[in-house]
Automatic annotation (TrEMBL):
Pfam families: HSDR_N_2. InterPro entries: HSDR_N. Residues 35-142 form the Type I restriction enzyme R protein N-terminal domain. It comes from the Bacteria. This is Type I restriction enzyme R protein N-terminal domain-containing protein.
Length: 146
């Protein structure tokens, strides 16, 4: 897998069914190592090791509904009272982050209403808040406060 604009971490990769799989410490199992999963695992480790997010508050690839359509959120971090705090949409490194990507996470925002939203392809990362007043981009990701 290619190097990303995210800190490296001690990852575990093994071959299962003839394909590489990476260990996901949130789901506690090996999952297929796709380019998007490579970004997701890097980002999970970034949030835990650099921003202090507890593993217990993560939900990965969880379901949600938007306009009666079933969707999946890549990374959701809950607050200590169980409300959506940070929603992260991960894309493969070769996928450009553009208005379409931001629109996708914006649609999820209507359903989940997290305090913060983020999108990453492993090279570029954006974190922002969205409200009726518009979108406000942040200079960095929020540090988890207990």
């Amino acid at each position: 897998m290619e190097s990303l604009n995210l800190p490296p971490f001690a990852h575990k990769v093994k071959e299962l069914y003839g394909k590489p799989h990476i260990y996901d410490l949130i789901r506690r199992k090996f999952v297929a190592l796709t380019p998007e999963e490579w970004v997701r695992q890097h980002f999970i480790h970034l949030l835990i090791s650099h921003y202090g997010y507890p593993k217990a508050l993560f939900a990965v690839e969880t379901g949600l509904y938007y306009n009666k359509l079933a969707k999946r959120s890549d990374i959701m971090v809950l607050s200590t009272v169980g409300e959506p705090f940070l929603l992260v949409e991960c894309k493969a490194p070769h996928i450009a982050l553009n208005e379409g990507t931001l629109a996708q996470i914006g649609r999820y925002n209507f359903t989940l209403r997290p305090q913060y939203l983020a999108v990453t392809n492993g090279h570029q990362h954006y974190c922002f808040t969205a409200s009726s007043d518009g979108i406000r981009y942040l200079d960095d990701f929020p540090v988890f406060l207990r």
